[in-house]
Amino acid sequence: MPKGYWIAQNDVTDPETYKKYLAGSAPAFVKYGAKFLVRGGRHSALQGNIRSRQVLIEFESYEQALACFNSPEYQDAAQYRLSAAQGDIVIVEGAE
Fold first, then answer.
1. Angle of helix 72-84 relative to helix 62-70, nearest 10 degrees?
2. What is the DSSP code string of 8-41?
3. Which domains, ranges and CATH numbers included, belong to the chain?
4. Could you read off the pLDDT of 50-60 as tens digits, one per residue?
5. Structure pTM?
């Protein structure tokens, strides 16, 4: 079964509120077995519109990735991300 991935790009505008998002979302990531492959760090913007923070999270399946995003635990924390950052999240199924 292919894995599922969150691909997120953010420009954090309020670092203090973003910290609340990071702390609040942690229980959902633990519950759904998230594995952070990329969380910030160096990157090179080679083409297109790239945001300042890149995140790649792996889940055991596409369904697990969706369940994590839609969970009450994550949605409670997401309000902080939405008020502290501009960004995009895409959930994709990995290649077999």
1. 70
2. EEEEES-HHHHHHHHHHHHHHHHHTT-EEEEES-
3. 9-54+71-88 (3.30.70.100)
4. 899 999 999 99
5. 0.92
